[in-house]
Design brief:
The protein is of the alpha/beta class. Helix content is 31%, strand content 20%. The strands form 3 sheets. A 7-stranded parallel beta sheet has the order 1-2-3-4-7-8-9. A two-stranded antiparallel ribbon has the order 5-6. It has a two-stranded antiparallel sheet with strand order 10-11. Strand 8, helix 6 and strand 9 form a beta-alpha-beta unit. The N and C termini lie close together (9 Å). Bound molecules: zinc ion (2 copies).
């Protein structure tokens, strides 16, 4: 595997290591191209909200983040470095997000859903909330938000597409209908799906997305991006051998890369 399109920086408040260390690890791993995709500030929260600096970078840090990535490009000509960002989709805040994204020269925008009704459902310190929720209803809510995000046209690829499985809670009614509806929306909007290896190290212990979800997407012609979701330099390209295995098993033939928000497809040779 030759790219990693999902890497964080300490700006988001929950990652460690210098940006240079991420780049150097990518070079050591033999990657040809990477995209930094740190957490964009939340567009629905005031700038001084405590979640900025804990889950996402602060608004005043965004210009410096962009400059730092562009500077690394010149310092490491041996690897292509793309300016990406991971942006939370917040229902009914599409205008605000579009406005913020338009202010910076992003190559690649990952869309993600970490909040259901302002509950950060993937934060392990808030896991007790699940006891008060109906898991079928949560999966339904998650995928409804996911599909709205896909249709918004704001994102190039959807990060960790079945993040709602993180703690291993699955709906009694089954998962297939959610995968099919999501795959349909991705195909229709021509938005990519991210294959993200971080799930292997979460309680669920499997790649995002599940193989069946990926198959539903590939069957409809959805393109994929690949990311480790590294929050530490040594996590860059982590478990990409397993990602490769999954892509091989599901018959994925191409990988999507982005420059200035434009997608190009590249054949995968195993
Ligand atoms: Zn994420
Ligand atoms: Zn991430």
């Amino acid at each position: 595997m030759f790219v990693d399109y999902h890497m964080h920086t300490p700006l988001c408040g929950h990652a460690q290591g210098e940006m240079e260390e991420y780049v150097e690890e990518a070079i050591r791993q033999g990657l040809k191209e990477i995209a930094f995709s740190d957490h964009l500030p939340f567009v629905h929260l005031p700038a001084d909200h405590p979640w900025h600096g804990r889950y996402a970078m602060r608004m005043e840090e965004l210009p410096g983040y962009c400059e730092a990535v562009l500077k690394l490009r010149h310092e490491y000509p041996e690897i292509k470095i793309k300016l990406g960002v991971e942006a939370d989709y917040i229902p009914n805040k599409e205008k605000e997000l579009e406005e913020l994204l338009s202010q910076h020269p992003f190559d690649f925008v990952l869309g993600s859903i970490h909040l259901i009704d302002d509950w950060p459902f993937d934060d392990p310190s808030l896991i007790d909330e699940y006891a008060h929720k109906d898991i079928d209803e949560l999966w339904h809510r998650y995928f409804a938000i996911f599909i709205s995000a896909v249709k918004s046209g704001l994102f190039d690829s959807m990060a960790h597409p079945d993040l709602i499985k993180k703690f291993g809670f699955f709906p009694r009614a089954g998962v297939q209908i959610h995968y099919e509806n999501a795959a349909e929306a991705l195909a229709e909007a021509q938005v990519c799906l991210e294959v993200n290896s971080a799930g292997l190290h979460k309680p669920v212990g499997e790649i995002y997305p599940a193989a069946a979800f990926l198959e539903d997407c590939l069957a409809r012609g959805v393109a994929v991006t690949i990311g480790s979701d590294a929050h530490r330099p040594w996590e860059v390209a982590r478990d990409f051998a397993k990602v490769k295995e999954l892509l091989q098993e599901t018959g994925c033939k191409e990988l999507a890369l982005f420059t200035g928000r434009r997608k190009t497809l590249h054949p995968l040779t195993f």
